[in-house]
């Protein structure tokens, strides 16, 4: 079973203070890039993996999706989604992405925002998603960039000339990484970029787009705190399709 850190009171309280929790998709600076990878939502049957507060699920039906299945392992997340983003076209269910059994050929779009780096059996999940999509169906997701995950040291390295950089820790060593984010003991799964891409290919997906997301000049003007993200990529945005 995936770690259910989001039902930890300290973690959930901290998460609820984040801009993406308080302001929804508008609070996620990567959202415009993610949105650009999505197909026309009219008539889509959507699978939202790690749906969280349900911001994307509601956006999808508001933009034409006929149904959304939102899955999350966290009861606290699902309760918040049901409270603030309910819609009769959305079915929020508790589901562990480590071993989810998805119906074959049910969906036209699978979506996930910053959830897949928690999954140890990502190969199994991708195979399950592939068979759950109709031919031509799309998979669009964001995930922590492997370089970001391998940069766990809390402090900058400062060179003699004053330039700062992030240390990268054993990038080629894949597997579990335990870090502090909002609370201690948050478990994530580190994979190299090559491994991630090959998992997609081996699961039967065609890779359509791979974006190493970073803040734009406008992002930096509106959110100066994002300046750190210029130094190393924070997340990947991936679009793939089932042939």
TrEMBL record:
Protein's GO biological process: methylation
Nucleotidyltransferase among keywords: no
Highest taxon of the lineage: Bacteria
InterPro entries for this protein: Methyltransf_11, SAM-dependent_MTases_sf
Coiled coil stretches, renumbered: none
Pfam families with a match to the protein in the record: Methyltransf_11 (PF08241)
Protein name listed in UniProt: Class I SAM-dependent methyltransferase
Organism: Pseudomonas putida (Arthrobacter siderocapsulatus)
Organismal lineage: Bacteria, Pseudomonadati, Pseudomonadota, Gammaproteobacteria, Pseudomonadales
């Amino acid at each position: 079973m995936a770690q259910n850190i989001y039902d930890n009171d300290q973690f959930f309280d901290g998460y609820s203070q984040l801009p993406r929790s308080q302001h929804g998709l508008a609070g996620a600076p990567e959202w415009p890039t993610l949105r650009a990878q999505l197909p026309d939502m009219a008539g889509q049957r959507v699978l939202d993996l790690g749906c969280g507060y349900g911001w994307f699920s509601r956006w999808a039906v508001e933009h034409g999706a006929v149904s959304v299945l939102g899955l999350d392992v966290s009861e606290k997340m699902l309760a918040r989604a049901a409270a603030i983003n309910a819609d009769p076209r959305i079915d929020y269910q508790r589901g562990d992405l480590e071993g989810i059994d998805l119906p074959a050929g049910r969906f036209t779009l699978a979506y996930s925002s910053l959830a897949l780096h928690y999954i140890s059996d990502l190969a199994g999940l991708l195979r399950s998603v592939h068979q759950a999509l109709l031919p031509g169906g799309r998979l669009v997701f964001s995930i922590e960039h492997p370089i970001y995950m391998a940069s766990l040291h809390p402090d900058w390295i400062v060179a003699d000339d004053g330039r700062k950089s992030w240390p990268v820790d054993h990038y080629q060593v894949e597997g579990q990484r335990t870090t502090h984010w909002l609370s201690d003991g948050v478990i994530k799964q580190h994979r190299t970029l090559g491994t991630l891409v090959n998992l997609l290919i081996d699961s039967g997906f065609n890779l359509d787009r791979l974006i190493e997301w970073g803040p734009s000049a406008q992002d930096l003007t509106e959110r100066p705190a994002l300046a750190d993200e210029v130094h190393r990529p924070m997340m990947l945005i991936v679009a793939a399709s089932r042939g």
